[in-house]
Amino acid sequence: MPQSLISLKDDEIQAVLAAVTAFCDERGDSVDSAMGRQAMTIAVSIVTGNRTIVDLLPELRLLLSNQEKESHPTQEASD
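-> structure tokens emitted (79 positions)
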């Protein structure tokens, strides 16, 4: 279990694991992949920062999609 999960309550751990597993399943990634580890880190950060587990999966999707857009900006076709 990652060290960051140890500080969470049981229900928060379950919510984080469920959200990360669902997120990875949607993308066809493993929880043990680089994306899965990144999702885990962000999910724990969300819970520890806000102390909320409501709507964790949608917030995780939003944050990671924004992060992907920033790391892979769309290149406009030159005229």
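Helices lie at 3-6, 10-27, 34-50, 56-71.
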